[in-house]
Amino acid sequence: MTIRAVWRGQVLAESEKTLRLEGNHYFPVESLNREFFVESATTSVCPWKGRARYFDVVVDGQVNRDAAWYYPEPSRAAAQIKGRVAFWHGVRVERAEDAPGAERPGMMARLRGLLGDGR
C-alpha cells in the first residue's frame, strides 16, 4: 500500500515502505520531495527515541514550521526509524488510493462495465 504525505496540495513524500510507530508513518528519507524541505534549528528530546531534528515544509511560499521530524541518531530501541521522516502540523498522511481524485481501479472498472465503456 502506498502512503503519501500532502500539504497545500503538494505530495511531500510517497512510499510503500513507511514504518508505523506511535501512530505516525515514518517515510524513508529517499521518498521525500526535497524541494519542499528546509532544515530547521528546532530540536526536541524523546525519552526513548532520542533527539529529534525538524524540517520546515515550504509550498508556494507558505511555511509550515517544524512540520516534519526525524531522529538522526535514534536510540537502540528506536533504531528502525533512522533515515526516516514523520509529519504533523496539518500535513495529511493518507493512502495514495484514498487521495482526492485518485482512481480506484476496482470501482472504476465496475462503473465502466455498468456504463458500457469498453476501456
Give the topology, please:
Elements: E1 3-7, E2 10-15, E3 19-21, E4 24-28, E5 37-46, E6 50-59, E7 62-70, E8 84-87, E9 92-95, H1 105-115
Antiparallel strand pairs: 1-2, 1-9, 3-4, 4-8, 5-6, 6-7, 7-8
Offer a few descriptive terms.
119 residues; mainly beta; Metal Binding Protein, Guanine Nucleotide Exchange Factor, Chain A; six-stranded antiparallel β-sheet; 1 helix; 9 strands
Protein model, in words:
The radius of gyration is 17 Å and the shape is globular. The model is unreliable at 103-111 (pLDDT under 50). It is built from 1 helix and 9 strands, in the order βββββββββα. It has one helix at residues 105-115, and strands at residues 3-7, 10-15, 19-21, 24-28, 37-46, 50-59, 62-70, 84-87, 92-95. It has one domain (3-115): Metal Binding Protein, Guanine Nucleotide Exchange Factor, Chain A (Beta Complex). A hairpin with a 3-residue loop joins strand 5 and strand 6. With 119 residues, the protein is mostly beta strands. The strands form 2 sheets. Strands 3-4-8-7-6-5 form a 6-stranded antiparallel beta sheet, with no helix packed on it.
